[in-house]
């Protein structure tokens, strides 16, 4: 399914439920926000977001704890969790969604190979984090991360 079609479905769900959303993106570098804003009328539910590519931005702007980054790394369930909660809090939206990963071609390790991506969705009372391992080149990994972030969000919205 194309991301714009999925984003359109999510937009309808958000509008129906009268919920707002914000994004915090690392490896997708704005793709997720672009998927939302490609839909006419998305300003009713899409509040904005951060491209938190560096650890400094994750800490100073988004509110990820230094000890989280030091102990678990930027690409971790813990960091994605704090990114989703941080953007939700900073922008004052109902939902925060975060994506952090290693798109390559460099940066991977045995524990976190290229294609490792964590996606977190912070709702009113819950935070869901999932780990993915995507295959392919940099752009393929980034597109897959965006698509799966939208799919996870749709799943979470259906449970509200």
From TrEMBL:
Q: Where is the CinA C-terminal domain?
A: 4-157
InterPro entries in the cross-refs = CinA-like_C (IPR036653), CinA_C (IPR008136)
Please give the SUPFAM superfamilies that the UniProt record associates with this protein: CinA-like
Tell me which domain of life the UniProt entry assigns to the organism this sequence originates from: Bacteria
The record, for Gene3D superfamilies, names: CinA-like (3.90.950.20)
Protein name (record): CinA C-terminal domain-containing protein
Source organism of the structure: candidate division WOR_3 bacterium SM1_77
